[in-house]
Amino acid sequence: MNLSNLFRIALKALSNNKMRGFLTMLGIIIGVASVITMLAIGQGSKLGIQEQISEMGANMIMIQPGGDMRGGVRLSASDMETLKMVDYENLRSEVRYISAISPTVNASGQLIYGGNNTPTTLYGVSADYLDIRRYSIDDGSMFSEQDIASAAKVCVVGKTVVDNLFPNGENPIGAVLRFNKIPFRVIGLLQSKGYNSMGMDQDDLVLAPYTTIQKRILAITYLQGLTASALGEEYSEAAMEEIAEILRRNHRLKEGDEDDFTIRSMEELSATISSVMDMLTLLLGSIAGISLLVGGIGIMNIMYVSVTERTREIGLRMSIGAKGSDILAQFLTEAILISLTGGLIGVILGGGLSWMTRSLFGLASYIQPWSVILSFAVCSLTGIFFGWYPARKAAGLDPIEAIRYE
Prior knowledge:
By secondary structure, this protein is α+β, with helices and mostly antiparallel strands. The chain has helices at 3-15, 18-57, 85-94, 129-133, 145-149, 159-165, 210-218, 236-250, 266-309, 311-319, 324-359, 369-395, 399-404, and strands at residues 60-65, 68-70, 73-75, 98-113, 116-125, 137-140, 154-157, 176-179, 182-190, 206-209, 225-230, 261-265.
C-alpha cells in the first residue's frame, strides 16, 4: 500500500469521528502550546536580564576590599582600608586589558534643596565612571580633572533626584544642593536609565569628584572600591588576573597569603543568571511537557478503541490480501496524523499565547526556532510511540476471528 493511499484512508477514518479526533488532538495541542509558551517566557526573561546587565556594562569589573581577621574577629569588607590611591594609579597605568577605571567612595544621606529633600546616595567617582556604567549627560557637563584635583563641591544628578527636589520642573543646572550641610552645585543632569533587572532605580544617584567625598564628607584617604571596564567581555578574565597580580604586589602579599581584596565581573553575574534561567526554563518546559505525555496516552486510548471498533474491517482487509504490515502502517499513520495535526495547531496557539503574554501582560517572551522543531519532533515520536502498540495489536489479529467479531 503506497503512502498516498495510507494518508487517504487515515483521513477518511478520522473524518468519520471528527469530534473524537479533535478531542484526541486536544491533549497534543495543549501540550505543544504550553511547551512553546513556557520556553518562550523562560528565554525572553533570560534575554531581558542579559540586556539589563549589558546596559549596566557587561564588561564591568568591580574591585572591593576583602574581609580580614583581626584579634580573632572577621571584619567586613566595608571596615577594611586595603585599597589606596596608589592601587588606582598603578592599575590605571599598568593593566593592558582595561579601557577605563574609576575610584568609588560613597555616602548616604539626605539631599536638600529649598523646602524639598530626598534620601539618596552620593557617589564619589572619576569622569571615567560614565563610560564604565554607560551613563551619559543629558544636560550640562561632567566634572573635570581640575574639579577632582581641587576637590570641588560640584555634582551631577540623576532624574529621580531631580524629580524629587524640583517637582515644578525647574532647571537644576546651577542650583546649590546641601548634603550633610555641605553645598554642592549642580553642573550636569544624567540621562535616565530607569530600573534595572534587580529592581534598583539607576536614576536615584548623585555623582561628585571622589576627592570631594573623601575629604569633605567621609574624611578618609583610602578607597571603598574601584570600578573598571575591560576592553571587551572576552578580556574580562585577563584583566582580572592582571588586577589581582598588581594588587598582590602593592599589598606585599606572599605566596599562600589570602587576597585582601575581591574582584568580581559582570560576566560572572551574567553567567550565573543565565545558568539559573536555563534551569528555570527547563523546569517550565518539563512541567508543560507532562501535557504531551497525557496527550500521547489519549492517542493510545483512542487507537485501542478504533482497533476494537474496526476489528471486522481489519479482518476483511486481511482476507482480501492485506498484510499485517499494511494494517500496522494504516493505524500508525492515523496516530501520527493526529499527533502532527495537533502539533501544528499547538505551535500556532503557542505563538499566539506568547504574543499575548508579551503584549497584554508585559512578560518578556521569545520563541526560538529550536523550540518549534523540538515540539514537532516530540509530536512525531509521541504519535509513533503511543500509536505503535495498538497498531501492532491490529496487525496481529487473526483474519477469521476478526471477521467473526461482533
